[in-house]
Design a protein that fits this description.
Blueprint (H helix, E strand, L loop, with lengths): L1 E7 L3 E8 L2 E9 L10 H14 L7 E8 L1 E4 L4 E5 L11 H9 L3 E5 H11 L9 E6 L3 E7 L2 E2 L31 H5 L4 H6 L17 H9 L3 H25 L3 E6 L5 H15 L8 E4 L6 H13 L2
Parallel strand pairs: 1-4, 4-7, 8-11, 11-12
Antiparallel strand pairs: 1-2, 2-3, 5-6, 8-9, 9-10
Length: about 325
């Protein structure tokens, strides 16, 4: 039996067939998240059916469907309570009814960062840990926390997942959440073009020739010793480290898990992040360990499979 996992990301929708902690098949389709969830469901359904056909499977060969979104989730009701700027029509949508109607399967629904955390603790780089925080660098910056083996949720379902909206600069940029100076507004993928273009030497940089400025283009310019890229990275590291320190002080983890597409450049970034955090975080008991997701693109898919299996016990 396999589990169907669907990660509704801000840029892409990742869909996978997962069997005992291994992604057996995966496909990616564009998200068009600003246009809503419901218009994308027909393409999601087609992609799932094609994955099953290519794998020689039918829906009846699957245990269930796991669904993740970047919002505040009610896992018991299997609905989205609130979401910021993406898939606005997902609020109140019945994922269980959809899963039953299209695939005759039960569904589990969870926040994407919580899913990624469970994926790494259940099957990945932090397997077996019970006190951890995760930062997932996607279109935005998602976070999740676990204390003594329990996912942190809070009274209204938002505890632990709003680390990207902890303030890193009180005089900073206006965030999509309405706050000012959030780590996400200062250093996320969506905030990066504005950060780069306002650099006084932007027009002298190779980045000015990029059609779309993203983390990858900054890293590539950095390798070419582009001065603007060097200074932009320094600013990004400042905010990423501040955000991670906030999470450490708030949740007292033993391990910090880093995931998301940015971690494809972990060889360049991780040593600098670790050095800054260890120098500034107040952890008199010792130093927090850092691990990087083995395959950042599948952390959420693995976590959703973990939740599907858990729902059957």
């Amino acid at each position: 039996m396999v589990d169907i996992s669907i990660d509704f990301g801000g840029t892409n929708i990742k869909i996978g067939l997962v069997h005992f902690g291994c992604v057996k098949a995966k496909t990616i389709i564009p998200a068009f998240a600003d246009k809503g969830l419901i218009p994308r469901l027909s393409d999601v359904e087609k992609a799932i059916h094609q994955l099953l056909i290519d794998s020689g499977l039918m829906p009846c060969d699957c245990t269930g469907i796991g669904i993740a979104l970047p919002g505040i989730i009610d896992p018991a009701a299997k609905t989205v309570l609130s979401i910021n700027g993406k898939y606005a029509d997902a609020v109140g949508f019945s994922f269980q009814e959809w899963a039953n109607r299209i695939f005759s399967l039960d569904a589990v629904v969870e926040n994407d960062a919580r899913s990624a955390l469970l994926g790494e603790i259940g099957y990945g780089a932090a397997r077996g840990e019970s006190n951890a925080v995760l930062i997932i660098f996607g279109t935005g910056i998602g976070t999740a926390a676990m204390i003594n083996g329990q996912i942190v949720r809070g009274r209204h379902g938002q505890a632990g997942i709003l680390g990207g909206h902890l303030v890193a600069n009180v005089h900073g940029n206006r965030c999509t959440c309405g706050n000012v100076g959030c780590m996400e507004a200062q250093s996320s993928h969506w905030a990066l073009p504005q950060l780069v273009k306002r650099h006084p030497q932007f027009l002298d940089s190779s980045l000015s020739n990029e059609i779309g400025i993203d983390y990858r283009s900054v890293i590539e310019a950095l390798k070419a010793v582009d001065q603007v890229a060097l200074e932009i990275l320094e600013e990004l590291l400042l905010y990423w480290s501040a955000g991670i320190i906030n999470l450490i002080h708030a949740y007292d983890p033993e391990v910090v898990i880093l995931s998301g597409g940015l971690m494809k450049s972990a060889d360049v970034l991780l040593p600098q992040i670790v050095d800054r955090v260890h120098a500034l975080a107040w952890t008199p008991w010792g130093k927090v360990r850092f691990v990087v997701a083995e395959d950042p693109d599948t952390s959420v898919l693995l976590g959703l499979s973990y939740l599907v299996q858990l729902s059957k016990t």
